[in-house]
Amino acid sequence: MAIEKDNRWFFNKLKKGLEKTRNILFTNVDDLILGERKIDQELFDELEESLIMADVGPVFANDMIDKVKDQVRRNELNSASHLKQVMHDRMVEILARNESQMNIARGKLFVIMVVGVNGTGKTTTIGKLANNLKQNGRNVMIVAADTFRAAAIEQLEIWSQRVGVPIIKQKMDSDPSAVVFDAISAAKTGRADTVIIDTAGRLHTKTNLMDELKKMKRIIAREISDAPHEVMLVLDATTGQNAVNQAKIFKDEIGVTGLVLTKLDATAKGGVIIRIAMDLDIPIRYIGIGEGLDDLREFKSKEFVDALFNENTH
């Protein structure tokens, strides 16, 4: 009962958080389907324009129009008022392909490398993730490998105290790979079974940053042959198309195995999750909708789309 109540609380918070996105996405769509609107090319053009404005991206917009046209041809859609249901079902179908939880084996050291540009909520995400995994029985250690910002180390220290997990750190401007080596060595002695590594995010020095991240990956792999087991990219939903661009860069340069989309409660650009799902074949692991410890949750496609459409299914 407590779990059900908690799920309902999160679903309601997600609905509220997606309100700005919902208003952008559906205000025009609702206007389009008012009354006995005829399904014709003019409607298709206006719907496509509305979808693109909602930041879901041209690929989804085109896909959606093709889907609608196909259903009209098959006589499966004879009313414009049914368009939202078609959109709902198609979004769930697309996002479900990218819905995948981390597979953390029991009795084995698991290393998560968290990457992303500064300002995405990376350090906060690490704190919440550490709390989430600790609650699920993991013995977590966090690692302050963003040694270029004193604030990042201090923030991670606060999270380690708040969550009650150990932190491995060195002084500012230390070699990040040396911090990572220390952490892996400590974890291998039994101090932790899950290591979450914070990394720098200075994208304006892209080459240096990516070289540094690749060096960290090599150090980790040298110590544990199949690690890092997860390279988790944190994206800020409020940046819209920039989030997609960042994902492409990190995917191409170092390989990304999972995504976290943060700040969904503070943006009208939440539709970017559809664009990310269609443009990039990367699992969406978590979404963040606030500053609280429990505001990071595993991504569930139907729950997300139901919340976006303001449906009361939870």
Defining key terms:
eight-stranded mixed β-sheet; Rossmann fold; Four Helix Bundle (Hemerythrin (Met), subunit A); 314 residues; alpha/beta; 2 domains; 53% helix
Structural overview:
The structure is a single chain. The chain has 314 residues and is of the alpha/beta class. The protein has two domains: 2-96, Up-down Bundle (Four Helix Bundle (Hemerythrin (Met), subunit A)); 110-298, 3-Layer(aba) Sandwich (Rossmann fold), CATH 3.40.50. Helix content is 53%, strand content 12%. α5 (83-96) runs antiparallel to α12 (301-308) and α6 (122-135) packs parallel to α7. The mean pLDDT is 88.
CATH superfamily of the largest domain: P-loop containing nucleotide triphosphate hydrolases
Structural class: alpha/beta
> What is the N-to-C order of secondary-structure elements (H for helix, E for strand)?
HHHHHEHEHEHEHEHEHEEH
CATH topological fold name of the largest domain: Rossmann fold
Mean pLDDT: 88
Widest sheet, order of strands: 3-2-4-1-5-6-7-8
Reported CATH architecture of the largest domain: 3-Layer(aba) Sandwich
Q: Helix count, per DSSP?
A: 12
Shape assignment: elongated
Structural domains: how many:
2
How do you describe this structure in short?
The protein has 314 residues and is an alpha/beta fold. It has twelve helices and eight strands.
